Amino acid sequence: MLKYDYDGLEEHKKEHQELIESAKELQQKFLQESKSLSSEDIEFLEHWLTGHILGTAMDMGSCLCEVM
Question: Domain range holding 40?
Answer without folding.
Answer: 9-67
